[in-house]
Amino acid sequence: MSRNARSKSYGMEIIGLNAQALPTKAHISGRKESFANYIYKVLKQVHPDTGISSKAMSVMSSFVNDIFERIAVESSRLANYNRKCTITSQEIQTAVRLLLPGELAKHA
Questions:
Q1: 97: CB partners within 8 A, 6+ apart
Q2: Above 80 in pLDDT, residue 18?
Q3: Which of 21, 40, 53, 85 is packed most tightly, with the most Cβ within 10 A?
Q4: CA 75 → CA 7, 12, 61, 66, distances in Å?
Q5: How many of the other CB atoms lie within 10 Å of CB of 78?
Q6: How far apart are the first and last CA of the chain?
Q7: Confidence (pLDDT) at 67
Q8: For 21-57, how does the pLDDT look when each residue is reduced to its tens digit (9 = 90+)?
Q9: What is the pLDDT of residue 25?
Q10: GO terms for molecular function, please (predicted)?
């Protein structure tokens, strides 16, 4: 092992890291996944001449994330109630009906 390689691994051992624990490129760049592109495409289909601010886009993306998380939690709970290991479309459909009111549940 060369002196350079030895000193690099030694430095990582001192701070309690191993080579596998280093952050990936996506973590370093700080990229956040969002639904901005999809929200924008739907907006343009519904209202082609309307724009959206970045703050409003952030709110919409947070809203979509929140709804998806609620559906996932509820469908997981339903699968557990029925002693099933797999979340199927039936659990997701039931979760949507429980979470969304009236007409929204019918069209979702």
A1: 105
A2: no
A3: 40
A4: 50, 42, 21, 14
A5: 19
A6: 60
A7: 95
A8: 666 666 667 777 889 999 999 999 999 999 999 999 9
A9: 66
A10: DNA binding; protein heterodimerization activity; structural constituent of chromatin
